[in-house]
Structure formats: C-alpha cells, structure tokens
Amino acid sequence: MEKTLQLGLLENSHRFLCEAAKKARLAEDQPDEWMFAASALVQSVELALKAALADIHPVLIYENIDNPKRSVTIGIAISRLTNKSIGKIEFTIKDKKRLDRAIAIRNEITHSDFSLNFSQVEANFHEVFAFLAEFNRRHLETNIDEIIDAADLVAFLDNRKHHQEMLLRARTRLEDEGIEAHSLRSCSYCTEDTFVEEIDGFRCYLCHHLEPSVQCQNCGESFLEEELEDFSDAFQADYSEGRHDVFYNYGYDFHKACPECVAEIKQHIYELEQQNYFDQMMEDEYQDRVRGN
Ligand SMILES: [Zn+2]
Ligand SMILES: [Zn+2]
C-alpha cells in the first residue's frame, strides 16, 4: 500500500516531467509554451518531493499528519525532507532559491496579468530541470534517460544554459563518488570529460549517453571499441594484388588490443623476430659447417 502510493506519485511526477520537456522543445518556436513547460515542471518537482516523503512514511505527504486532508506544499516538503530527524536530504541554498523562483513563476502564470520575461523563465527551467534530474537519480533511483525521450535530451544539450547546469551537477557527482580525473574519458555525444566506466559499459554523467565496453583480449581491461588498436601490421604477411594475407601471427589469434598492450605485443613480436633471425643464422652456419664449407 505504502509502495503503491509512492509509485503512483513517482509515475505522475515523471509524466509531468515528460510533458515539461515536450513543451520546452515547442517553446523554441513558440515562446508562449514556456508557461506550460514551467508549470508542468513545478508540478513534477512537487510530486517528486512527495514521492520522497511517502518513501519515508505515507502520512508525511499531508500538511497536518493528525488530520490528513491537504497535502504539503513544496516549501513544507523541503523542510520535512531536510529535517535531520525525518529526511536527512540536503538542498543547497541555490537550489532552494531556484525552486522558490520556479514557484513564483508558476504563480505568476496563473494570474491573468502576468508579465513574464521568457528568457528568465527558460533559464530557471533548465536550472530546475537539472535539479530534478539529480534528485530523481539520488533519491528516487531513476535516471533522467529512463524518464525523458532521448531526442528531447539531446535537443536540450544544444542549450548553453542546460549544458552548463548539467555539467556542474555531473562534476559534483564525480567528486562525490571520488572518481579521479585520469579515469575519465571524453563523451562522444556531448564532448565533456564526464564519461565513466560502469558495469555494463561507459556512461556519461552529463548527457547519460551509454556505450558498451569491449575487453582488451590481452589484459582483460574494459575499453571503448574506438580505443582498441589494430596491430596486425606487425604480423608477417604478403601484400599481393591488393590482398593482405597473414601467414604468421606469432601465436596471436586476435589483432586488436588496448594501446598499452599493442606496444607490448609489438615489442614481443620484434623479440620473436630477432630470435627467429638468430636461430636461422645459427642453423645456416651449422649447415655450412656440416657441408664442410
Ligand atoms: Zn555526454
Ligand atoms: Zn590491454
């Protein structure tokens, strides 16, 4: 029962978030759509906060727990979630301000005489969107790419404000998780150095792009397909009539490896060649001697 309530809230929160994303994309050509995008986003925030409260105890979604009729406002939800004896969730001052601003915008929209500056609404939208994406991941176990269409997410990345907000949060996450800079790769989608190795592949902490990993057959470590190098030019081969016929592979039945292993393998092949050359020389000398030359 408690789980059903939480899932219902979460599902609705995600529906509003999808709606917000769709409207924000429409707003590129029709600025009026920002009104709908902004209010759907606030609705999604409210439901997400309630889902997090319901996860602790369902009665917490009500303003008065002794008389559970009216559900909490965003303000009360935040103060409960941050209460050390209830939620222990931290909100930065910046995030609180941004949420306040989003609520103010929503309230303004509902009044007929609103005087909104669309570029401010847009900026706030991307701030709150990035906040909500992070909140879903940290506290509701959902990644943003499980909620929003990939096409919408990609389109958002062209927006400087969006990119910057998502990047800031990705960097904070990298720091929180203690991921060191040297283990990061550059994401082929958003080009930021926020590409992290996970169990099932590499994932971008900014744009959530996921790429499967391949194993280097020499050392067993995980790499991106494009990182592996072909070392078959070190094999003995015939190049005739445009064909490349390998006739000796020095015992390597694969021809791609990570850069470090490729250097090692080439050195190994070189040593084997030297050894072969030396053996051949000794053999020839021996034959010469046998023939009595
Ligand atoms: Zn990326
Ligand atoms: Zn390797």
Any overview of this molecule?
This protein has 293 residues and is mainly alpha-helical. It has two domains: 9-176; 230-292, no CATH class. Helices cover 54% and strands 10% of the residues. The strands form four sheets. The chain has a three-stranded antiparallel sheet with strand order 1-2-3, with no helix packed on it. The protein has a two-stranded antiparallel sheet with strand order 4-5. The model has no long low-confidence stretch (mean pLDDT 90). Bound molecules: zinc ion (ZN) (2 copies).
Can you give keywords for this protein?
mainly alpha; two-stranded antiparallel sheet; binds zinc ion; elongated; single chain; three-stranded antiparallel β-sheet; 293 residues; 9 strands; 2 domains; 9 helices
Provide a brief overview of the structure.
The protein is built from 9 helices and 9 strands.
The ordered string of helix (H) and strand (E) elements is HHHHHHHHEEEEEEEEEH
* Strand elements, count: 9
Order of neighbouring strands in the sheet with most strands: 1-2-3
Number of domains: 2
Would you tell me the structural class of the helices and strands? mainly alpha
Proportion in β-strands: 5-15%
**Ligand inventory:** zinc ion
Distance between the termini: 98 Å
Envelope shape: elongated
Helix content: 40-55%
Largest sheet: 3 strands, antiparallel
On the 0-100 scale, what is the average pLDDT?
A: 90
Low-confidence stretches: none
| Helical run tally | 9
- Rg to the nearest angstrom? 30 Å
